[in-house]
Every structure is written in C-alpha cells, then in structure tokens.
Amino acid sequence: MSIPKFYIHPQDSALKHFPPLLSQHIPLSNAIHNRLRAPQNTPLRHCLFATTFPPNTPNSTPSEPWTILFSDRSRLKESQIWIFNSLINSPVPLSPQESDTLNLQVKEAVHFLKNSEVKDAPGWPFDPLLRFGGVHSLITEVLVTEFRDAISYITRWNMYTIPTTTNPDPGSENSPLHSLEKKTNTLPPGFTLSLIPTSHLPLIISTSSIPRQAETLKQQANACILNTEGEPVAWVYLGLDGSLATLYVVPEYRSRGLATIVARELLKRLEEGGFEDLGIRGSSGWVHAEAKDGNVESETVMRRLGGCVAAETAYLSLDSEKI
C-alpha cells in the first residue's frame, strides 16, 4: 500500500470544498466542521488547510477514504490541530484494509504537520508540541500506537452531541429548547442572565483546567448568570469548534441547576442569531461537549440538554522532536 500524500489547500478553496464533505459526517465531524468555519480564522493567522486529495479535484468529490486537517499553530497552548477521516463514520467495524489505510493516513498527517513550516504565522517558530483537539478514538489509538514515546499529554473524554433544534420554529413543542424550558430550574430571585463581563475574564481563566487565552474568549459566544451583587456565578462558552466549553459553576452555587440554565441560554441565543456581531451565524444544527467518564454533574447537564454519547475523544500533545 502506497504512502498517502497531503496537499495544502488555499483558505478560500478549503472553506468552499471542505465543509460540504464534512457536513455528510455531522455530528461526528462537528468539531472540525465548525473550526474551519470560525470567523477567527483570518488570513493573517496563516492557518493550514490540508487533505489527502489535491486542490481542484474533479467535481470536488474525492474518492474515499480521505483525511482533512486543520491547523492553527499560533493558538500556542490552546488546541491547535483538528483531524477527521471519512472512515470514522463507518457503520460497521473497519476491515483490515480500511484499518491499514487509516493508520497510514494518520501517520503521514503527523509527519506532514511536523515538516510544514508556516513562517508567516504569529508565534513562529512554534513550540515543538503538536496539540490535537477532539480526536476520535479510532485516530487516537493510531497515534498512541505509532507515537507512544512522543506523547507528552493525553486526556480521554466522552463526546456528547446535542441538537440545537429539530424544528424550524424554536418555539415549537418539538424543539429540544422548548422542552428544556419546561424541565430546567428557574433562576433564584435577583439572579440574571447576561453575557460574561470582560472584567471577569481573569476569573474565567483561573477556574479552567484547560489553558484559555483572554483574546480568544473575547471572540467566543458566551452566557453567564449574575448573582444579586452582579458577580458571575455560572458561565459557559461556545468554542471555536462549536463545543460547549468552559462550563463552570462557582462551588457555593452548585446543585441549583445553574449549569443547565446557563447552557440552555447559550443555545437559545445561538439559534436566535444572538451572536452575529461575533460573526457567528447559527450552527451546524448540533453542538457537542466533552465530559470525563464518571463526571456525574457534567453528564447530567448534557442529558438534560438532550445530548447523548456519540464517541470517545482525546486531547493530546505529541512532541515532534521525538518523531
């Protein structure tokens, strides 16, 4: 079996041809689909868009299986690399030949990323760590098997997929958001729903177990609950990949249903077009969220939002100097 080759696509071409391919695999492809379309991917960031098929493929329909890569190494300590392979959505276990193809494409993707210089990107030269986000378990196992000695960090999660609407009318009784209105606790007296005040970003960053940058958070859709003193006590962001992220409730305000309320508010504003000032115009029809297995509180919130586990994912870092 020949070694696959990765081709760099110009940004305008990638944003035209990649989303239609990925949309056929939503919700499993939700992370990279939304990451590609995020308005923060300005040409000045010099993001890397690459696939196993060349630009100008006839009819823009490549033969399968294919791999799509999106990389923004200037994200520094945040997740930088998103990868999707069309075999992930296979309804049956992969055949030996399909497994071999997946292995080859993933291995070559790592070498391609290591050897791709993006000298015009902010932050160049980059840290040698390749930081992957939301990696499906099939790809994770290839990375762990082939590059075990180079992995410096890995965490595994359950990916919940959550429909943002099932009906053109968000007020319909068939809408998950409508049902959620009935089931969710009400706000305590004097508490209000709001956007997150920028003055409280240090608090948001300090309570996150995942590295966050203030400038990135300022560009993301968000919602919070303010107490009677105007202090945020619960908050959530919509990540650049369309994920519910940084969901947090201040310890003394837990067990009141605030996490579900604030997440519901974010989804409601998203579907109503409430974040167009940030360049966010609706969603793929899904959001997703990653919860640690056994994190009862997070899993309960995801189920209350209508979510279910679609896959196991991982966040991991590979030291490219050890490859």
From TrEMBL:
Organism: Hymenoscyphus albidus
GO molecular function, one term: acyltransferase activity, transferring groups other than amino-acyl groups
InterPro entries: Acyl-CoA_N-acyltransferase, Acyl_CoA_acyltransferase, GNAT_dom
One Pfam family of this chain: Acetyltransf_1
Residue intervals of the N-acetyltransferase domain: 164-323
Lineage: Eukaryota, Fungi, Dikarya, Ascomycota, Pezizomycotina
PROSITE patterns, sorted: GNAT
Name this polypeptide is given: N-acetyltransferase domain-containing protein
Transmembrane residue ranges: none
